[in-house]
Structure formats: C-alpha cells, structure tokens
C-alpha cells in the first residue's frame, strides 16, 4: 500500500500543528492525501502569548507540496473554542475523519514547588484539550459511523520523570481517555490510539544541558527529529489500521514499540483475610520480587537511538 494516497479523501484536524511533531504529522497526512485543519494558537512553550504565524507556516508548506489546508487559532483548552475548531474543519472541507490531539505546553517544576497555576495550565491544554476536541468531533464520527483518533501521550506519564507531575498526570490521563473512547465508540466504527513520541522539538528543548552527561543526552535526543513520529500517526489514522484500537505505541527514531497497559502481575490470597500485620509479615514479602522499580523514562529507554 502506498503512503501517497493512504488518507485520500479524508479530513484531519491536527492540534498544535504550528511546529514540531504536530507540523510533521500535518504535513505527512497532507502528503498521504488528507485535507488538513491546522489548529495552533502560536503560544510559547509555557502557554503564554499568541500568534497565528506558526500555523501559517505549516499551511504554506502543505500548499507548496500540493495539499490543502485551513487554519484555526482557537484554544483547545475551552469547550466552546474546541467546538469552533471542529466546525472550522467542516466549513473548510465538509467533513472530519481524523483527530490528532497533539497540542501541549510545559510547566516543569519539582512537585513540592509546583503551583496550582502550573498544574491547571498543563492539565487544561493536554488532558482537557484532548477531551474537548475529541468530544466535539465525536458527534460527526458517530453520525458517519467512522473516524480515527490519534492522541499524543508520553513516557513521562507511562513510565515517569522528574519535575513533571502536571505533564505526567495529563499524559497518563490521555491514555485512559483514549481507551475509553475506543470502548465507547467501537459500535460506530471509531478507533482511538495513542503515540508516545520521541523527538527533539520545542517540547524537549527545555531539557538542561549543563553537565557532560546532560549534553550527551541532549545530543542523542537531537538525532530523533519530529518527522520520525509521523508515519505511525498516518498509519493509525488510515483504513489500513481498521483493526487497531485502544493501543499505546511509542515511536523512537527508527523503532516502534507497542507499550504494555496496566494488568495484574502477581497476587496473594489468604482465605481468612488480611490484617495489616499479616500483610507486612507474609503478603508484601511474597509480592516484593515483583514490585516495580522507581525508574524514569531514560532508565527504561537507556540505549542509543538508531
């Protein structure tokens, strides 16, 4: 199957498509034949300011390559504006078939110093934004009995990371949202999947590079360009992936991972029931060998990208 027409006749709404991973996904989907609604409000990494110019740049790239694109500069973090973005796709192209929830900001702070404002800002864009855009599109997907969601999650949520309680919580929440969408909308032939992308982009440019070790890590990350995530997004949005739903993938350089989801790994049983003392004496020692380590994403993905 040729990528060049894998999304022919479809309309995709890509949030945060003014740069980085979102732009590469939007361009790749346009190359695969889709019409693109570019959603981007042009804010800074921390969610401040606002300019439509990044979206305009993405639109120019798509049109220079023979594709069709329109722009919405509405925020994803408000229900009314999210609905307007979906309506913009319908106004421009008459339908909507694909939603890519990619928009995001960062407010990295160690947990005990994180302000409520830092927490809410990140949750509102990532988690609430993914819900609002997805929910606004759901009515149209349900009526036409087809549609595909591709959500950007992160190993910061799937595994863990320092100083990202807000981001990690939002990203792990998105995986649960995706699974719920997949379950609830399967009857309408609608699919929902997640990608945990690895890429050097604006979202990772805030990683410190002060020590030799940090500089070496950043150098590795810089090899993982945002476009490496786009082929998987195109595939998951296409009819070729009609049998794939409720899954979590990761894309890292030239590697694609199917990620595990929470399932029981070991149990202990006592017919008489448990007391706290019995748990301490017998229950936890039996489970101890299966306890998961307090690791982070770089500990799990510890080898060099190839």
Automatic annotation (TrEMBL):
<protein>
    <submittedName>
        <fullName>Short-chain dehydrogenase</fullName>
    </submittedName>
</protein>
<dbReference type="InterPro" id="IPR036291">
    <property type="entry name" value="NAD(P)-bd_dom_sf"/>
</dbReference>
<dbReference type="InterPro" id="IPR057326">
    <property type="entry name" value="KR_dom"/>
</dbReference>
<dbReference type="InterPro" id="IPR002347">
    <property type="entry name" value="SDR_fam"/>
</dbReference>
<dbReference type="InterPro" id="IPR020904">
    <property type="entry name" value="Sc_DH/Rdtase_CS"/>
</dbReference>
<comment type="similarity">
    <text>Belongs to the short-chain dehydrogenases/reductases (SDR) family.</text>
</comment>
<dbReference type="InterPro" id="IPR051687">
    <property type="entry name" value="Peroxisomal_Beta-Oxidation"/>
</dbReference>
<dbReference type="Pfam" id="PF00106">
    <property type="entry name" value="adh_short"/>
</dbReference>
<feature type="domain" description="Ketoreductase">
    <location>
        <begin position="10"/>
        <end position="206"/>
    </location>
</feature>
């Amino acid at each position: 199957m040729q990528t060049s027409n894998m999304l022919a006749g479809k309309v995709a709404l890509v949030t945060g498509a003014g740069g980085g991973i979102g732009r590469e996904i939007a361009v790749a989907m346009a190359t695969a034949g889709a019409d693109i609604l570019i959603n981007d409000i042009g804010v800074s990494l921390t969610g401040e300011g606002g300019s439509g110019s990044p979206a305009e740049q993405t639109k120019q790239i798509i049109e220079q390559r023979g594709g069709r694109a329109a722009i919405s500069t509405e925020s994803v973090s408000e229900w009314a504006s999210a609905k307007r973005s979906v309506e913009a796709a319908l106004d421009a192209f008459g339908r909507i078939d694909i939603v890519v929830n990619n928009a995001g900001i960062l407010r990295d702070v160690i947990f005990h110093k994180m302000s409520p404002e830092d927490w809410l800002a990140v949750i509102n864009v990532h988690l609430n934004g993914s819900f609002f855009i997805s929910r606004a599109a759901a009515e149209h997907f349900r009526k036409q009995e087809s549609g595909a969601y591709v959500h950007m999650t992160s190993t910061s949520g799937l595994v863990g990371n320092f100083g990202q309680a807000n981001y990690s919580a939002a990203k792990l929440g998105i995986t649960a949202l995706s699974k719920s969408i997949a379950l609830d909308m399967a009857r309408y032939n609608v699919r929902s999947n997640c990608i945990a992308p690895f890429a050097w982009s604006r979202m990772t440019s805030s990683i410190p590079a002060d020590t030799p070790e940090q500089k070496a890590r950043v150098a590795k990350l810089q090899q993982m360009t945002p476009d490496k995530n786009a082929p998987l997004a195109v595939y998951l949005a296409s009819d070729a992936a009609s049998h794939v739903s409720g899954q979590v993938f990761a894309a890292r350089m030239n590697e694609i991972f199917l990620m595990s989801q929470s399932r029981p790994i070991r149990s202990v049983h006592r017919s008489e029931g448990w007391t706290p003392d019995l748990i301490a004496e017998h229950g936890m020692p039996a489970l101890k060998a299966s306890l998961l380590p307090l690791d982070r994403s770089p500990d799990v993905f510890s080898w060099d990208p190839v």
